[in-house]
Amino acid sequence: MNFPSGVPGIPDAIFKPENFIFPVFDYNWGRDYDHSEASGVPTNAPPPIEHVIKMLVPRVNADGNEVGGVPTVQVDAPLATYLGWNITAGPGEVGYDGRPFHAGQVCNYVGGMVPFFKKKADRVAAGDPRLSLEERYVTHAGYVAAVRKAADNAACQGYLLAGPAAASMGAKCAGAIPAGAADDWALLVQQARDSNVLCTTFSSPTPPALPKCIDPAP
């Protein structure tokens, strides 16, 4: 998979085949049982295992994010490592409920996120191999620019809607979108503008609004 070593909270031992991959067995239940329809009468009990089905996993990039497939802004301008799995909490960890089952092991289908450090010094001190936000984007404006580029990449390949609002904001591949559909390009870029990623100064909002970054953004 090429998952980076040293990501906080994710021990290398997780990726040993016996820890990360759950084997799927091909059982021989007898000729009177139809596997594809899950019907019939099993005549072999217990059933012998014919073989272990080969399991495939996705490759990941230097951030630990999966590569290939549909381009997304979340992966092309990331703030974290995004996981389709998680690690079961153990004693002393947030969320641990006292049960000993599978502590420290992979739990599938429960997504996780490991955010990047903001500063290089902090991530080096933690032994995190992933670049910090400042190393990636330098400023808030740099982050917004990265989101715009990622949104353009997805929109120009037909995977992201970019309509009139996107065109007014400078999208490269804007056009007509279905009636009632959201202008996803514009929404994503505006969310990046309104975020506090690498902000140095903020507006003074009137409650209940949240403070907004007022660094210049393209």
Q: Give the biggest sheet.
A: 2 strands, antiparallel
Question: What's the helical proportion of residues?
Answer: 10-25%
Number of helices: 7
Radius of gyration: 23 Å
Beta-strand content estimate: 5-15%
Number of DSSP strand runs:
6
Strand order of the largest sheet: 1-4
Shape: extended
Mean pLDDT: 89
What is the straight-line distance between the termini?
36 Å
The SSE order reads HEEEEHEEHHHHH
Helix vs. strand class: alpha+beta
Low-confidence stretches: none
**Assembly status:** single chain
Question: Topology, pairings included?
Answer:
Blueprint: H1 17-20, E1 24-27, E2 33-34, E3 39-40, E4 49-53, H2 73-76, E5 80-87, E6 106-115, H3 120-125, H4 133-137, H5 140-156, H6 164-168, H7 184-194
Antiparallel strand pairs: 1-4, 2-3, 5-6
Tag the structure with descriptive keywords.
218 residues; alpha+beta; two-stranded antiparallel ribbon; 6 strands; 24% helix; extended
Give your account of this protein's structure.
It is a single chain. With 218 residues, the protein is α+β, with helices and mostly antiparallel strands. It is 24% helix and 14% strand. It has 7 helices and 6 strands, in the order H-E-E-E-E-H-E-E-H-H-H-H-H. The protein has a two-stranded antiparallel ribbon. It has a two-stranded antiparallel sheet with strand order 2-3. Strand 2 (33-34) and strand 3 form a beta hairpin. The longest helix has 17 residues, at 140-156. The chain is extended and about 70 Å long. The mean pLDDT is 89.
